[in-house]
Amino acid sequence: MTMELLSGMQVLQSGGSNVVVIKLGGSALTDKSRGSGGVRAEVLENVASDLRYLRSRGFSVVLVTGGGYEAHKLAKEYGLGCKYVDSSRFSGAILTHIAAANLCEYVCKYLCERGIAASPLHPFSMTVLCGCNVEYFPIDVVEQLLVKGVVPVLHGDVCLDREYNFSILSGDDIVKYLCNVLLGVRCCIFLMDVPGILRDSGDEIYSTIYVSELDSVVHEVMSRGGTDKTTVVDVTGGIRKKLYVARDIARRGIPVYFASGFRKGVLRLIVDGLGTAGKDFTVVIPQ
């Protein structure tokens, strides 16, 4: 893996792309480690401040929140995932949706109260899956909100599934879908509870990961139990899933960043091309 420190400007290319897709992970947004699942106001304020800046620069933003502690706990309790759900667990599936939706609406309310028009979009009510794959999703709703200057806010959710009755559509899968179908995506940013993809020492982060190197990085990361600080309650694949999603997005020519939601101003650093890979974030790019 390369150890060179690349500036954000070397990664981002100027052009007509002005959509930024941001995944606000549940590990950053809620406190999973203490079992409380409380929302971290510090992280939300950092995001709100950066969103105001990005919008002032003419960028359109799509925000995707993780399910958070409560939704992951319920999904685990009711045995939800990419598998058949019988009628005895329908109520549990709906309760899981409600927990994820409540967190998303909390984020939207927080942003709206600070002058950022942000609208919740609940996948449960607008998405049909088949065997855990998206069969129907009205992307035009997202596009119209962007045209009107509103921030669409989606979230990891339980959705109707033609094959399994209900299955989980993770926030990471939503991010991947958006980057596949939306036009003009400039970059994708994962905000976590750590400053990037941690190296063996735990004190340093990977700088730039090329797509061709990703399998070996995943092997190293998983051999020490993952890089998330709080992966105990996570039913959607954790850091391994995120890295493979990043690979698929990067193959489309879209740089994918991993950064800390606790770092004030990190979104503007990335989008303005002022940050440094290996210091401010980890970035996954094509070869």
Report what the structure shows.
The chain has 287 residues and is of the alpha/beta class. It has a single domain, classed as Carbamate kinase (3-Layer(aba) Sandwich), CATH 3.40.1160.10. The chain is 39% helix and 20% strand. It has eleven helices and twelve strands. It has helices at residues 8-11, 26-29, 41-56, 68-77, 90-112, 123-126, 139-147, 171-181, 214-223, 238-250, 266-272, and strands spanning 19-24, 60-65, 118-120, 128-130, 133-136, 151-155, 157-161, 165-169, 185-192, 208-210, 256-260, 282-285. The strands form two sheets. An eight-stranded mixed beta sheet has the order 3-6-2-1-9-11-12-10, sandwiched between helices. Strands 5-4-7-8 form a four-stranded mixed beta sheet. Strand 7 (157-161) and strand 8 (165-169) form a beta hairpin. Helix 4 (68-77) packs antiparallel against helix 5. The longest helix is centred in the middle third of the chain and has 23 residues, at 90-112. The chain is globular. The chain starts with 7 loop residues before the first helix and ends with a strand.
Keywords:
287 residues; alpha/beta; Carbamate kinase; eight-stranded mixed beta sheet; four-stranded mixed beta sheet; 11 helices; 20% strand; disordered N terminus
Short summary:
By secondary structure, the chain is an alpha/beta fold. The chain has helices at residues 8-11, 26-29, 41-56, 68-77, 90-112, 123-126, 139-147, 171-181, 214-223, 238-250, 266-272, and strands at 19-24, 60-65, 118-120, 128-130, 133-136, 151-155, 157-161, 165-169, 185-192, 208-210, 256-260, 282-285.
